[in-house]
Structures are given as structure tokens and as C-alpha cells.
Automatic annotation (TrEMBL), chains A, B, C, D:
Pfam families: Beta_elim_lyase. Residues 3-287 form the Aromatic amino acid beta-eliminating lyase/threonine aldolase domain. It comes from Novosphingobium sediminis. InterPro entries: ArAA_b-elim_lyase/Thr_aldolase (IPR001597), PyrdxlP-dep_Trfase (IPR015424), PyrdxlP-dep_Trfase_major (IPR015421), PyrdxlP-dep_Trfase_small (IPR015422). PANTHER family: L-THREONINE ALDOLASE-RELATED (PTHR48097), LOW SPECIFICITY L-THREONINE ALDOLASE (PTHR48097:SF5). Its cofactor is pyridoxal 5'-phosphate. The keyword Iron does not apply. Belongs to the threonine aldolase family. One of its GO terms (molecular function) is lyase activity. The lineage of its organism: Bacteria, Pseudomonadati, Pseudomonadota, Alphaproteobacteria, Sphingomonadales. This is L-threonine aldolase. Keywords: Pyridoxal phosphate. Homotetramer. Coiled coil: none annotated.
Amino acid sequence: MKFFSDNAAPVHPRIWAAMQAADAPDTAYDGDALSARLDAAFTDLFGVPCAAIWVATGTAGNCLALSAMVPPHGGVVCHREAHIEMDEGGAPGFFLHGAKLLLAEGEGAKLTPETISTVLDGIRPGVHQVQPHAISITQATECGRVYTPAEVSAISALAKARGLGLHMDGARFANAVAHLGCSPADVTVGAGVDALTFGCVKNGGMSAEAIVFFAPDLVDVVRYRRKRAGHLQSKGRYLAAQILAMLEGGLWLENARAANAAAQEIAAACGERLIHPVEANEIFVVLSPAEQAALRGQGFDFYDWTAPAGAPGAARLVTSWSSPPHEVEALARAIAAL
Amino acid sequence: MKFFSDNAAPVHPRIWAAMQAADAPDTAYDGDALSARLDAAFTDLFGVPCAAIWVATGTAGNCLALSAMVPPHGGVVCHREAHIEMDEGGAPGFFLHGAKLLLAEGEGAKLTPETISTVLDGIRPGVHQVQPHAISITQATECGRVYTPAEVSAISALAKARGLGLHMDGARFANAVAHLGCSPADVTVGAGVDALTFGCVKNGGMSAEAIVFFAPDLVDVVRYRRKRAGHLQSKGRYLAAQILAMLEGGLWLENARAANAAAQEIAAACGERLIHPVEANEIFVVLSPAEQAALRGQGFDFYDWTAPAGAPGAARLVTSWSSPPHEVEALARAIAAL
Amino acid sequence: MKFFSDNAAPVHPRIWAAMQAADAPDTAYDGDALSARLDAAFTDLFGVPCAAIWVATGTAGNCLALSAMVPPHGGVVCHREAHIEMDEGGAPGFFLHGAKLLLAEGEGAKLTPETISTVLDGIRPGVHQVQPHAISITQATECGRVYTPAEVSAISALAKARGLGLHMDGARFANAVAHLGCSPADVTVGAGVDALTFGCVKNGGMSAEAIVFFAPDLVDVVRYRRKRAGHLQSKGRYLAAQILAMLEGGLWLENARAANAAAQEIAAACGERLIHPVEANEIFVVLSPAEQAALRGQGFDFYDWTAPAGAPGAARLVTSWSSPPHEVEALARAIAAL
Amino acid sequence: MKFFSDNAAPVHPRIWAAMQAADAPDTAYDGDALSARLDAAFTDLFGVPCAAIWVATGTAGNCLALSAMVPPHGGVVCHREAHIEMDEGGAPGFFLHGAKLLLAEGEGAKLTPETISTVLDGIRPGVHQVQPHAISITQATECGRVYTPAEVSAISALAKARGLGLHMDGARFANAVAHLGCSPADVTVGAGVDALTFGCVKNGGMSAEAIVFFAPDLVDVVRYRRKRAGHLQSKGRYLAAQILAMLEGGLWLENARAANAAAQEIAAACGERLIHPVEANEIFVVLSPAEQAALRGQGFDFYDWTAPAGAPGAARLVTSWSSPPHEVEALARAIAAL
């Protein structure tokens, strides 16, 4: 019973179907009919002119999006626990040619105008220190927390005032929007985001994420960078098909709601154990080594996590669109019984 | 009727089946059971201990393989028409951090010890000029020509004598082996190749190529580089499944033979028009603009090509594992009738 | 008797004097009073608003200038024999983060609109091939040839028409202007050049070259790149002093005229041996191995050079501001006597 | 009266003399007789076989040295306040092609095995996080503190145990050795350091620092990297001359002792105001804004500094080999009188 991550869940049947429907030969790379529909599909979703392209991974998506905003000698403000800092194997250093991540604090891995300003104000202007060119936030965060539209707007106001781009890592964007109940535009373009990595893989896709540019001219340089990074697949239609199927009929939200609901069911059993409020599909719980062993003994698979200072041990539990209801229920019961 | 490339052909049914059989959740990235089988599968195929990893594109495969052999201040000898020089959007410069391609000549886009030596001997030792660290050859070449085991051995002897690594871009390796009728080892590890990009996408795959290291310790650094390049997909099992299915029962050779046979059928109709001997699945033909227009008018889709000096016009025709026999026959007839 | 290059000549007494006059402590880096005078000094020289900064080497100057014009995924058109291609150890790949040099032909290492167009027209638009972003020409060229203002204007017209920046490597700019007899502006900003590497080291300086931007806003990014490349020396006043002394009273032209005159004296003795017209301070001559040995036996030090096809051997002879007249005369006589 | 830094002090007369003695033409780059003496000079100084090369700046020296130890996908452990992190404009990201600085804590900007281990132990092995390849320490530190031989040995023992290289940024190495009274080998090669940036510029030089490799084979790759970074000056003899003169007769220690003595004189006047013990030539003092203004009103020039939490204000005072005794005395008196 796998609760270690949503990133290895099966592919949703409607994604499979869309991929197979794309099997007829078409123009290579992104010259096919499906890839050509991405701009329109996201323009529909967000209600403003968008440019959107596919890539295979969130790492590539995040770093390529940032490469349109940040020169090699520049920096990106992000949270100390951000995926680009902690879990991408140094990819920002590669894609941005040595640009620097400028690390900020914030509860629940959420940045605030205050924590960002602390970083910005600590940088001496001039050539001796790396100057910021963009801010990157994660929605939902690495702690499963969700930025409200107002929170994003406050950050974007700061970004604008300082002349910085604003990128959103939306590996779990669907989970965040499902939680907020707002429109996807409210928490992105309406709140001043310039580029969004729109995650699909964790939400029932196989191998496609979209980079959505609300400042559509940013896409031009990214097309070159994508090719140059070996990310322009020749059978791109199978990636476009996944993304289009995800948007079709709101599958992205449907899947995210299912994952969020499963997380809530488990969270309800965790009570005082919860380290962070559960807003998306990740649950961080205090669990002693013995308790972890007990759960693993019952067949539950999950990651150790670093406990907040003083806590005796912790774990991360992640649900997905496909978490079997009986496994979710079993996990909730098992935790309650500890 | 699409003869513009094999890189947009449909996915073979056995590849689809293998991908779908991989749908159950497993460990993420390359920690899954299928990815774990790659080393053994290629060790079986080549008869020596191999290390093998998946990537999504040939560009990533070529450049990651080379990144294990070439430092940022070094160079790679390749043919002036090599894919890494002509068609990868500068990816070698990105993956190798500014290392340089050192361009050599050779008929049919084939390097020879002589043309390589001309390049090597023209480089002054010392820090003022970029020094070579590897040679990269393409099998089959960009002109559809195939290196024999003896030809590869001669190049590897030179590489060894000069302390250079030897990489083979095998985007159409299957077509080359199908043409040669030798074992895959004969023309690679047996002939001194250090790393092979083993192509699947052009041969019925969807989105997986293998990098095969005959010097298995080279893989270690490439694992880091793959992650850092955003190429470590979290649902890697779907890529491993494609490669394993391709090897299973010799599908890779079966598909290549089909493509090669279709190419021979068309070649037979081309007679004097042929610019290069047809050895794999690419046919380069002299076709005047009017003839090209005539063929296109009949529904044949293909690329213009640069004609050899003095020729009145040229085109590239590419067959694939799935080229419909009646379309192949129709094309052959149409050319013969010109 | 050293005629191997002008790049190891002594430092001119007026440069020494200026450096020593700069010895009093001042603000570090380029915050000193001398560095602050560079913009005005070059604005005076060229008659238009210029921004100018010092660097220690021509390689750094060329590559930093280009880094303001060319993104990592772009390319620079230059001559096949250009210093940036042949003699900078891959520095453009480093400073430009993997951008590509696009090599053009041209007699005497001079580009022409035609040879540049041949390169440009051979590049397919789109992401699969590296697109040009700048042209770099060398004045005087690696063969000692000089572009006229009209020739530079013709190249800049092409650059403008194609949206490309135009950089001039002026390691021997002084020698070129001394030959032309025009104003320095005529052959640079007046002819459409965007940035000039203004050489001093080969012309009597010790360790300072200037990068002069005729599009002054280009300097901003280069200030960051210079620091990041470890080229922002803390005692920058000693570099600024060299450059200012070079401009003061026309020392740069005076030194170049001396070097050119010495070259003419030698050239006059070479007659039919000359491979290129002698316009600056380099002389390329046909010299058989025996003749080379004879000259070396008389104490003359120079580099072998690659002879034009069919010629029996060649050498490069370089004069400098400090070539002793009796050595120049001796060399001329020795060649005439061969 | 300038106490803002030692990095803008005049050039020592013996350095000037040595540079002028190098004026006769010699082979270019580092082929001259003086550059050829560097290995032997440092071998003498350290008592073990050394390879040593010149560069113009400490930034280039630090980053080039590290480039021999750290691949682009690797990391360097350094102090959060290290110069490479805080004051080199992102140069490590450039020279190391995106490698990452892994920041550790430590009082007085000194690392300890414990603070380094905290960083190392927090890194998950594998490709998802950047793995360490080297440790860089600064001697004396950015807070003017000095590592003892035993402290360096403890760090190198950890480095060896973890398979990491050990680099020492010795911009103020002379000041540290002058303070310690040990041999220069005791605190470097004898304590396990692999490469040392041996500073001269802050100690009476003009534009030359040495990189000294105690593992001499590391120099080979750095020679290529230096050229590629535009740091191979053609008149290298003037840089070699500076370094040789600095070593000659112990000038480096003599100058450092003068600077340290001046710092002690000022420190003695600071009493409770001292933020760090004064061991080299930097004095960090608590000074209220009013006190700072008072000192500046008397003609003293220095940098503001970030005060330790809770302190009302702070400043950094730096002495050099050339700090005029009467100015030092005046500053001491002025502080005492506050």
C-alpha cells in the first residue's frame, strides 16, 4: 500500500485513451495537431492569452521557465525547502548556467513578502553579490500548504516593485486549486504570476508537464532552451495528448479532488500528530520509529521525514488520484489505532 | 503518405502492451523493477557487462554519454554533418558546458581514421586550442550509410592511440545491424566503442532511448547528469518497459528489417537518382523541383535535401517499421514513373 | 631578435609612468578616479557617448563583449581563422555558456557580406539549429589585413538587416587605424560596430585592454559578467592608468605607426615571398624550412606558419612598437639575402 | 586615511622593482623564465613538490582551484560568510558550471568538523541532491580569524574520510601565518590542504595571486581552465615577477607582520568594542552610527558592517602593509576617545 508519493501512481485511463488516439503519424516534435492546441487549451482555462509547451518533467519545466527570466549572473529567490533547491540535483545551476538560488524562510515552505524582503534587503546592490531576477513559489508547497490568491498577489506586488519575474512551481497545482475552490486564474495570472509549471505527472499523467506563460513572449526563448536541453521529443503528440486529456472535462480537478479527499480522510485520523495543516494531498505526521515500524509492518509504504525540532520522529504520507479507498481507510484506521 | 522521417511513426503494439503492463505503481524514478532489468538485458544482448539507463531523446542520450568522456574545456571529433552538430540545437554546448565539436570530413557522413587524423593533427597541443577528448560516430550515418565492424575498429584503434573516448550515436543502430547482419556486439563493444546511444524512438518506441555503457563505470556520473538535466522521469518504468519490449524477442531487429526492406524497395526504383548507397532506411535521391512537386501532388510527404554540388535538386525519403506496404509500393512506382 | 609576436614586447615608458602615478591608494575595483575617466576618454576619442571598461586580456574582452549580445543558445558568426575560434582555448564556449561559433570564409581572414550570408543562409530557422545573434570581425585580421570603413559598413548593414550585433576584436586596432589613416570612429561606430575590444597589450601596454561599447547600455550586463569571471581586479586603477596613458597624446597611434613602419621595412625585402599584403604589423612570408633555419641561425625568432596550399613553407613575422630599428633592418637584409 | 580594505593599498617598492626588471621581452604567456620559476619557489617555501601558477585575482584563483576538484554536478562546502559565497558575484557558479556552494556555520567564519558534518549529514546520497566534492576554508577568515594547524588538520581528516578535496582561500594567508608563527607548510600541506590560493594583491602586490597545488597533478586541468577563462595574460612575466618578489627574502611575511601590528595597535584601543579577536589585519568593532560619523568626520574611511544581533552598529577596519603609522596611531586614539 503505497503512500510514499503521488509521483509513481498509474496513468489515468482517460490519459491512456488519449495517448492511443494520438498514435497515427503526424508531424514530428511539436509540429503536430495536438501540440498546436495547447495554447488554446490553456487560454480557455485561464481566460487570458497563454503560450504553453510540454516537457517531460517538473524539473525541466521549472528550470526552463526560470531560464526565460534569469540571466546566468542572476539569482532566484525561493524557499529553503523548495523542490528546485532540495530535490532537483542542481538542475537550476545547470539550466540557468550557474545562476544562484537565494534562499528564504517561511512556515510550511511558504514564502511571504516579509521573508522575501529579508533576502532582498540583505543583498548589496552592485556586481559583488548575485542580484535577484525572479521569485519562484511552489503551489502546493513541499509541506502540502496552499497559497491563497491574496498571498500570491502580495508576493507578485513585491516582485513587480523590485522588477522580478514570478514563477510558480505547480507540480501539485491541481491539488491547490481543488483546495482553494477558486478559478485557476485567480491564483496565477490574476495574482500576477508570469509562468506556471502545470503539473500532470503526479495527477494521473505519465510523462508530460506543461509550462504555461501568461507573458506569452517568454515562450520564444524557452522553445530554444527546450530543444537544447534534449527535451524536444520527436513524438511530442503523446505528451500533448496527455495534457489535453488532463484539461478535458476537468479531469485535472477531478483527480486532485480525489487525492485531496483521501488525504483528508487520513488527516482526520491523525489529530495531534499533524505537523502541517492538510490542504492538498500530503500529510506530515509525528510518528515515532516504533510507530513507523508498526505501520510498515502492516504493509504501508511511506517516507521518513525530518521532524520539527524536538519531535520524536515524523513521516510523509501522500495520496494520489488512484489511492484505493480501502487502502486509505486502512491507513486511517491504523494510524488512529497507534 | 509520410516519408519525411521515421521519428514520428506510431508506437509498436508490443511497446504499447509493455507500457500498459507497467501501469501498477512501483518505486519512482529508476528504482522500479523494470529499470533494474536494463543492465541485464543489454548485458545479454552484447555479451559483456553493460550499464544501461533510459532517457527520453537521442539528443539527451548523445550528450549525456559524451558528458562522461569530455570535460568542459575539451572537444569531441564528429562529422561535419553529424546530428550533434547539425540538429540538436546546440545541445552539446549545453550538456558539455561549452566543450567544442571538432568537425571532420568523410563521404556519406562517415568518419575515417584519415579524416579524424586530419582534424587531430591540425590541433596544436597546449592550452591555446581546444584539445580532443572523444570521437562520436553515427551508426547509421546522417546519409544512411553503415560502418562495418572493421571500420569502427579502425576508428577505435585511433581513439585508443590518442587517448580518446569513442561514442556511437545509434539513433538508427537497429537499421545498421539489420543491414550488416552481424551481432550487435561486433560493431560496438567488439570494435572498441565505449558508449552507445541505442535508439528506440525511430524504431517503434514512443519516448525512450537507452544509453549503453560498455565501460560500465561511466554510468555513475551520467546518473547525476541525467537528473540534473531534468531527464530523470518519475514514472521511469514506462520508459524501461519500452526498451525491454524492444529487446524482447528481437523486436528491434524485426522492426529495423521491415524499415530497411521498404527502403530497398524504393531504392530499387530510384536507379541513377540515388545520391548514397541505401544501406539502412534512408534514401537520398536527386529530384528536380518539378519532380518533387509531382510527388507531393500525389500525396507523398518528404523533406527537401541539399543536393550534391551541381545536382538539380534532392530529397530525403525515410521509411519506418510501420511504412504501409501499399504506400511504399506506390512511392516506388511514382518515382519510377517520373 | 624577437619577431614571434607583439604580445610579449616591453611596456612603454609612458605606460610605466602612468601606472606609478596611480600608486596612491584609491577606492578599490573600478571605483577609483582613473577608471571613472574611461568613459569620457573614449567618448572623446570616438566623438559619441561611449561606455568603456578595462579587462586584463583580449580573450576576456572579446568574450565579455559578446556575452552582452549572444544568449547561451545562440551563435556568433566569425572567420574560420578568428582568434576567438583558433586561439582562445574555447573561451567563447565558456563565457557564452555553450553558444556556438559559426565559421565563415574570407580571404586574408576577412569576412565579407557574401561569406557571412553563406553561413546565415545555410542555417534553418527554428530550434533545431543554433541561430546567429552576432558577428565578430577582427581588425586587423589574423592575416594582418585591414577592413576599410566601407567594408565594415557593408557588414554592419547586413548585421542590422538580420538583427545581429556587431563586435570588433581590436587586438591590433591601433595598427589598423594607423594604416587606414582614418579616424577611429570612421571604422567603428561610424561604420555600425556595437562593441570594440580596444587592444593595448600588444601595443605597449602591460595588462589592460578596454571594451568600448558604442551602445552604452550593453555595458551593464558586462560589469556583472566581468566580476563573475574573476576579472574585476581590486587595484583596477593600474589598468585604467595604462589605457588612459595609451590614449593620452595619441600614444596608441604613435606606437602602432612605429610597428607598422617596421613591418613595411621588412615587407619591402620580402617581395614575391609575401603571402598577404602587409597592412598592419604582421608579415606572412613563404620561407622554406632551410630558409627558416638560416634565419633562426642568425638569431631571428618567429613562428612557423601554415603555408597556402602548394607553398613550400611559411613563417609569421611580427613587429611591435619596440622592435629595435637595427634588428628590423637586419631582418630585412637577411631575408633579402636568402 | 583609508582603513576600508587592504585591497587598494599601493604596490610595494620591491614589487615595482621586480616588475621593471622583467621588462625585457621574453616568451609570451607563461613560457617566460620567471613563470618557470614559480614551481621551484613554492617548493622551496613549502618543502614539498608544488605546482604553482599565477592569476590576476583571488576570485579567479579560488574558482580555478576548485574547478580541479569539483565537477559541474557537484558541490563545495564553505562557510556561509565565505568570500566565494558572499563577494565573488557568483563566480563559483560560473567557473564550476553550476556546481553548488553548500553553506556551513561556524563562529568567526571558521568551519569546524562539526559544522561541516552537519552539512554533509544533511545531504541524502544519490542523484536528487547535490553531492559534496570539496571543502573550501578561508585563512584568515572573513572575520579576521585564523585556523591553527590542528584545526586545519581536523578538517582535512574529515575531508579525506569523506573523499573530498580541501581548498584554502589564502587571500590573507600571509597575515594568518604571521599570526601563527608556524611554517607555511604546517598550516597547509602539512595539515592536508590540496590547493591554496596564495594572496599577494592585498599584501603589497599589484595584480598577481598564486594558485599552489600540493597535489601537483591538479594543475594540469587548471592550465586549460585558466586560458579558457581569459586569465592567461600574454605578458605573464609581470605577474610572475610580483609573486617571486613577494617570496624573495620573506617580503610576504614582513608585509603581513606590519599590517598585523597596525591592527593590534588599533585593537588595543577598542577594548570591549571588539566583535572578534584580532588575529590578522581586520578589526571588527561595535560603533554606533554617531560614533561612525564622528570618526568619518575626522577623515577615517572604513566600511559599515553588520553588527551581531542586538548590537547598535558596527564597522570593519582593515590595515595593510602600507598603513601609515601616524594614521594608525591617530585612529587608535580617536577610537579610544569615543
